[in-house]
Amino acid sequence: MTLSAQSARRMRGQSQLLGGSDLAPADVVRRTVALQGQDLPAVLRAIAIRSRPGTTVQDVRDAFDRGELVRSWPMRGTLFATTPEHLATLLSFTAERTRNMAARRRAELGLDEAVLSRGRETLREALGLRSMRRAEVMELWSGAGIETADGRGYHLLMHLSVEGLAHWGPFSPSGTEQLLTLTSPGAAADPAGAELSAVLRGFVLARGPVTEADVAWWTKLPKTVVRKAAAGVEDLVQVEVDGTPAWIIGDPEIPGPSGVTLVPAFDEWILGYADRSLVAGPAMLAAIVPGGNGVFRPAILDDGVVVGTWRLPRTSRATPEPVIDLVERISPAKQKAVAQAVADWPHG
Model pTM? Predict the structure, then answer.
């Protein structure tokens, strides 16, 4: 089946649950495998908008507090929100590659085996007593003679989390930051690769149509490994999007237009794919990440096409005005719909 770009975007919108669902937050993430999570407030909102009606950001925090969701570095050295089960599976396939990719940076930071061992043992002992805030972890290491400035503490924390020692779990009493928690050992990966096939199926189900390159980029696994995993997915279907081979799960179903939709910063609508040209033009991509600074702004979608960015005001005024920056042309009626969507945004 050959899909137009418009049809592919509409199918993606349905796959990504941008219109919401009947799922609880943990089930949304379980279905999605993992959601980009380096910006904590943004990923809480990303989960909330994909969940059942009435879901709040606090409901998502509650899922973390219950241990149903965790946040860690399961691939690419990037933070994601995921489930404990998916975290164990992903790390079983990606941890060695992540550590190898970061070897040069560890050396530059002076994080040799002696430092890693000292950091590992002091952290394991401390977390065995209670979960800790990030600042407390840095103080712990400083007290053990480990320098944490200039990114050393962050990189050490990532390295030990990739090893499977710890993850970000429940929230602190203030609700503004997560606490670092010991990770329970996961089961060994199935050498036949059934778990990786399940991961690939989840990725495609929650984002399709996607390309083989999208999956390889997202996991940072070789395409040969991706193809082998794909061969184990019985309901994987190949389609073409404007002539490019892509994957979906199950029989193709093309929804109608989705209208105006808002997504938070760092959303998988943009960051879930190696090639983002299907949803945003060059000027729009530049506006989403101004100056290429790596900070992805919240986006405004018109039937799946990114047309601008938005944010709520950072002010204490009683009636602050939201900030809406449109890059692409849309009709006056759509502009009014954008303003209404921003005004009605329920997730803070």
Answer: 0.95
